[in-house]
Amino acid sequence: MSISSRFSVGIHILTLIEINKDGVSSSEYLAASVNTNPAVIRKIMGMLKKAGLLKVQPGIAGAELAKDLSDITLLDVYKAVNVVKDNELFSIHENPNPDCTVGRNIQNTIEPLFFTAQNTLENVFKNVTIEDVVKDIFEKEKVNAKSK
Amino acid sequence: MSISSRFSVGIHILTLIEINKDGVSSSEYLAASVNTNPAVIRKIMGMLKKAGLLKVQPGIAGAELAKDLSDITLLDVYKAVNVVKDNELFSIHENPNPDCTVGRNIQNTIEPLFFTAQNTLENVFKNVTIEDVVKDIFEKEKVNAKSK
DNA sequence: CGTCCTGTAACTACAATGAATACAGGTAAT
DNA sequence: ATTACCTGTATTCATTGTAGTTACAGGACG
């Protein structure tokens, strides 16, 4: 099992729109950078738009960020692209046997653990913004240029 | 997307084997508590055995823990049942365009973030043992008895 | 030898992913 | 208004993972 690449693609899209803010970020342009089909990009853009992260209009080429760079966290993206339903990162087997000590208590014991783990994970993403990603990409670009 | 219930079933199995240590924990017995098919249980038991958490022998009914209760962490179980391949909790889109500033750097920017998130998640499970789970189940059982 | 067990393989149904194609409908320039 | 290009969306497809089921080979043991 792996969490869908919609998450990383979503980050890619938002980052590129920012870096290309003087140009036109059409789904085709973005698809060329991500290296996938424009329809896939449009679908993800639709999710980002629905979450209020992106401004796009039918018929008009290009998209722009709907919020300030530093106001978009990776958690926003994570939630937007719907890679994991709320509190369902881990699935718990259904209907354990209520006639067994373990069966009738295991769910209540495990659930809080799973929720904690999930929250911990999400907190990591809550503390990183698209601005951080943009800065890091410029950083990496600089290092590459020097090493040539 | 959800992480396979093999994880919660694995915890259930180990916990029940402990609590039923004076009895015989056959795959059929465990399956009745988990409420699934014995073959499913045997498959997961095979994984737990392979990871050195469980002692089982062909032909002999029952299984027992291969380690001390307090030496089996949930992370051991998590790794054992192979619900997430190493460092692949998040999938990153392949082959982004190297001719684009974002395309050629995004993977190196995102990967460390994903690894951090994954490690944070796993650390939660590293700090909980089967012993903790067993204790919590007895705790919950006590509370239930009182509320009757 | 018969019985019960574990270990596996094979098959099923089902859901999610990611890519691809197609097209309806919006926008705008000519 | 016609044309060209865009977004939004439905549909289809191949692939993969999950979870359950059945079946059976082979071990253990009375």
Structure description:
The structure is a homodimer of 148-residue chains. Helices cover 58% and strands 7% of the residues of chain A. Chain A is elongated, with a radius of gyration of 20 Å. In chain A, α1 packs across α6 (130-147) and α2 (27-34) crosses α3. Chain A has a single domain (6-147), classed as Arc Repressor Mutant, subunit A (Orthogonal Bundle), CATH 1.10.10.10. In chain A, strands 1-2 form a two-stranded antiparallel sheet. The two termini of chain A are 38 Å apart. Chain A has six helices and two strands; from the N terminus they run αααββααα. Chain A has helices spanning 6-19, 27-34, 38-50, 74-80, 101-126, 130-147; strands spanning 54-57, 60-65. Chain A is mainly α and 148 residues long. At the A-B interface, α1, α2, α5 and α6 of A face α1, α2, α5 and α6 of B. Chain B binds a DNA duplex (30 and 30 nucleotides) through residues 1-2, 4-6, 26-28, 36-40, 42-43, 45-46, 56-63, 91, 93.
Based on the model shown, name its key terms.
elongated; homodimer; Arc Repressor Mutant, subunit A; two-stranded antiparallel sheet; 2 strands; mainly alpha; DNA-binding; 148 residues
